[in-house]
Fold:
Amino acid sequence: MFSAARSSLRRAYSTAAPKKLTIGLIPGDGIGKEVIPAGQQVLQALPSKYGLTFDFMNLKAGFEEFKNTGVALPDETVQTLKTKCDGALFGAVSSPTHKVKGYSSPIVALRKKMGLYANVRPVKWVQGQGIPVDMVIVRENTEDLYIKEERIFNRNGEKVAEAIKRISEKASWKIGKIALEIALRRQKVREQTSDSIHKSASLTVVHKSNVLSVSDGLFRETISNLYKQDLAKYGSVEYKEQIVDSMVYKMFREPQIFDVVVAPNLYGDILSDGAAALVGSLGLVASANVGDNFVIGEPTHGSAPDIQGKGIANPIATIRSTAMMLEFMGYPEPAAQIMAAVDANLKENKITTPDLGGKSSTTDVVEDVLRRL
Structure:
């Protein structure tokens, strides 16, 4: 689905890439430890016709790692990814809602250290499950409020907290570029199949520039200029803009009108998690953290401590994230076969975890997908 975007922005991968791939496995916290093995199993079960074999490296990161060692993202994990791995899968992290001295989210840090500037989250309806929706939310991954430059100070005897929102022209251009490339690629796929609710490609730029005219204004203007400067290439993509609060309303009322959506970091985070409700569960929604030279597949659900250890975590999001990782690494055929196996499981709707109203275990679902491969 996304290989055109990958080929133009991630030139390190090509059809000449090695057939033996080393994948870093970072379970993190909570149910991450239960679902990341599903991604490994699916890769190991791929048909031999693809000529792919895999080595796996177990790596550490997360709040539990921080509590044990005082470091949430060990340098060894980052260096191993940079020097020994072709791609990676990340599970979940249990970041506390209160301030913990010395701690910051390892996945946010990992995105920055690995140059993973785009978080790509498809949300797709499958027949018999959820309501008609087929959109991709492309979230800028490196800046906005997530730069975590905060301070607290005293003003006239009261505490005041302040956070910096940073939007750059360079980051906005890069995220706009990959979003437009994804829109073009999705349209090419639609022309070859009938498996979509959309007839043509569109890009919706989400912002709040009616209030944040400088920061969100720069984000909106940069992507608009990018589109206008290359109409010969992007003219077939309908360009739209949507203020973020209106976007939330329309996304739930008319999700079928959205194709590719691009947003700054915070809005993209909120929108992509909210969009999971359109298809029934966060346990279905995959993502890929994409840079020019690396990709990390990541299910969008959290660590879910309420179901940890019960064996009922939905592995579908991780399996789909595994397929996305392969897609962005330049292997669209095996990625498509994994996606087809997942869709077949959901359409049959017999072997599903409790979040989808079923009674099956994590293992049951994994085994069913493996059988369909």
Q: What stands out?
A: The first helix runs from residue 3 to 9. The mean pLDDT is 91. The radius of gyration is 20 Å.
